[in-house]
């Protein structure tokens, strides 16, 4: 990873914002870019660590993911599933029109 | 009223069982104290009617002699725990009207054991922060040096402030990188983060799933033991829940520490740590030695890299977890003409600045071309940090460190995100290794602010952690009460 403090520029921030589905106002882009560079510059110190023979660690539990039988164990709670939806109709979530 | 507020959880529980007090009068005393201390802003939601009805239910059980372990004890719940039919916002605007239709496992365990809910406590938005200043509804004020408006710490700032202000007899918190231990230290109370997997994460608003863990914030170590007894337990609904029985922690309160080995890591006394904290750290080492522990200098060589690894791993997991806030299934929605625009406006408007920063960092380190350099690298360093602890636990039983490099700071003074992150420098390593840790107050600094000391145990040794913490607590004799506490 790069070691200097200009790791991301405004176009890159635009791209990450797009991937994150985040609307960032024009006025905030400069300071956000600055913050991200400070944070990415800080985490870049990991480069000092020799990890050539180290396996990545994703979970500390050490146990295998438990499996259960593929049995239906709940259901018939449509009204609860939809209860907090901003918009629903006939048992469905409603989103802005996707197909022209 | 004040005699009721003077009782800690263990004492109140005893008085309830001896019928010296009723849960209704205890709960009413706490409801009054919530209103007396409302300027602190610890509570987001108060559920007075529910509290009263639960207290009455508990009083019946107490009279019938069928009291459960936490019967009639009024507690506060961090707003990260989903509570059925009670608004749960994670201190975020995007969830401002979210009313869960289910109950988190941890809170259900507490209600099953007789606890009474007072309300929901403020925290940093989605538990991302170390000062409680990222909460959508504004910061919480630390009851210590109340007029100076100090930070209660974060993210469980409302929980810590409420326990210190005596507006909850105990509270739940969640800890991802220090969010129970750091606010407990700032507010002069006890905060315990259990081993990863000890408490179910089911129904807790997800931040960083490989790190998030629930735990209690309480006045004393004994209170923490009682709370964790009820909160912990195997849960099929959380695939990372540990199928291991936790011993009754109450049995371990007075085991002492004779012959136990306490490791003092040299990496935890770095530049920038406050003099008063160093002084009380040294005192704490002396107290444990006087009680029969053997003090052994140890080294955790990768400590320095814990914080940078954390600030890759936690945002990466957060960016993935928070993808669920899409304005479709629950949460606020910004209307727009296209689906993508709806997502962007909903999320841009619904999340605060710190949450957006972390989603952006997380998305970047997981994005094509950067994944290996950042995310995979951080996971490798995480293993080295875990191995550091494993090596040290071959030689010692517990590790003693300061909880934080400084005591509380004035609200609004730390604006730079990176400076804020440094608050968690002593709590993050144990989080990355999944180890249980406890912070307890041992003294006050020159300005009168509490100082917290942290003990870290090996995986699933909460019992030993409690024994050791109890010894330290008795030696420190921290009996101070915050000036902003309810009288």
Characterise the protein shown here.
The complex is a heterodimer of chains A (100) and B (487). With 100 residues, chain A is mainly alpha-helical. Chain A is built from three helices and two strands; from the N terminus they run αααββ. A two-stranded antiparallel ribbon of chain A has the order 1-2. The longest helix of chain A is centred in the middle third of the chain and has 18 residues, at 26-43. Chain A starts with 9 loop residues before the first helix and ends in a 7-residue tail after the last strand. The model of chain A has no long low-confidence stretch (mean pLDDT 91). Chain B is α/β, with parallel strands linked by helices. Chain B has a domain at 307-376. Chain B has 16 helices and eleven strands. Chain B has an eight-stranded mixed β-sheet with strand order 4-6-5-10-11-9-7-8, with helices on both faces. Chain B has a three-stranded mixed β-sheet with strand order 1-3-2, with helices on both faces. The termini of chain B are close together. The model of chain B has no long low-confidence stretch (mean pLDDT 97). Chains A and B meet through α1 and α2 of A and α10, α11, α12, α13 and α14 of B.
What attributes characterize this protein structure?
heterodimer; A: 100 residues; mainly alpha; two-stranded antiparallel ribbon; flat; B: 487 residues; alpha/beta; three-stranded mixed β-sheet; 16 helices; 38% helix; globular
């Amino acid at each position: 990873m790069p070691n200097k403090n200009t790791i991301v520029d405004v176009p890159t921030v635009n791209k990450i914002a797009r991937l994150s589905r985040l609307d960032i106002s024009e006025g905030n882009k400069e300071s956000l870019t600055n913050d991200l560079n400070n944070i990415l510059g800080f985490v870049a110190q990991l480069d000092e660590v020799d990890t050539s023979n180290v396996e990545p660690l994703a979970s500390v539990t050490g146990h295998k993911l438990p499996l259960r039988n593929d049995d239906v164990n709940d259901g018939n709670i449509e009204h609860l599933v939809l209860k907090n939806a901003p918009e629903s109709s006939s048992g469905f979530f409603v989103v802005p029109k996707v197909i022209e | 009223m004040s005699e009721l507020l003077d009782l800690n959880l263990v004492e109140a529980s005893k008085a309830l069982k001896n019928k010296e007090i009723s849960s209704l009068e205890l709960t009413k005393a706490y409801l009054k104290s919530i209103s007396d201390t409302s300027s602190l802003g610890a509570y987001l939601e108060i559920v007075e009617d529910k509290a009263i009805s639960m207290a009455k239910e508990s009083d019946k059980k107490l009279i019938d002699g069928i009291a459960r372990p936490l019967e009639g004890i009024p507690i506060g719940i961090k707003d990260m725990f989903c509570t059925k039919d009670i608004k749960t916002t994670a201190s975020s605007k995007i969830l401002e009207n979210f009313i869960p239709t289910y109950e988190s496992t941890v809170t259900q365990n507490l209600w099953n054991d007789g606890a009474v809910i007072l309300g929901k406590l403020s925290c940093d938005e989605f538990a991302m922060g170390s000062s409680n200043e990222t909460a959508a509804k504004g910061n919480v004020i630390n009851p210590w040096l109340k007029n100076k408006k100090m930070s209660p710490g974060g993210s469980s700032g409302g929980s810590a402030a409420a326990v210190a202000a005596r507006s909850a007899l105990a509270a739940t918190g969640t800890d991802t990188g220090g969010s129970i231990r750091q606010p407990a230290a700032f507010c002069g109370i006890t905060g315990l983060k259990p081993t990863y997997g000890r408490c179910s994460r089911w129904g807790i608003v997800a931040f960083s799933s490989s790190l998030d863990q629930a735990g209690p914030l309480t006045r004393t170590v004994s209170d923490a033991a009682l709370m964790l007894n009820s909160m912990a337990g195997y849960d099929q609904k959380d695939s990372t829940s540990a199928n291991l029985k936790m011993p009754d922690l109450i049995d371990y309160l007075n085991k002492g520490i004779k012959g136990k080995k306490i490791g003092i890591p040299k990496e935890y006394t770095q530049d920038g740590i406050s003099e008063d904290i160093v002084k009380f750290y040294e005192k704490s080492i002396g107290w444990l030695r006087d009680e029969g522990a053997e003090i052994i200098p140890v080294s955790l060589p990768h400590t320095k890299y814990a914080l940078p690894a954390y600030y890759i791993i936690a945002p990466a997991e957060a960016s993935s977890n928070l993808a669920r806030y899409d304005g479709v299934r629950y949460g606020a929605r910004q209307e727009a003409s296209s689906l993508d625009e709806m997502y962007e406006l909903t999320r841009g408007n619904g999340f605060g600045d710190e949450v957006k920063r972390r989603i952006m960092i997380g998305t970047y380190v997981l994005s094509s071309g950067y994944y290996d350099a950042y995310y995979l690298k951080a996971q490798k360093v995480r293993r080295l940090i875990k191995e550091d602890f494993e090596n040290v636990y071959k030689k010692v039983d517990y590790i003693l460190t300061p909880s934080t490099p400084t005591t509380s700071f004035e609200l609004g003074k730390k604006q730079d995100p990176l400076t804020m992150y440094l608050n968690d420098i002593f709590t993050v390593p144990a989080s990355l290794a999944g180890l249980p840790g406890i912070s307890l107050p041992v003294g006050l600094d020159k300005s009168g602010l509490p100082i917290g000391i942290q003990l870290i145990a090996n995986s699933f040794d909460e019992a030993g952690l409690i024994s050791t913490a109890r010894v330290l607590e008795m030696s420190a004799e921290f009996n101070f009460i915050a000036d902003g506490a309810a009288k």
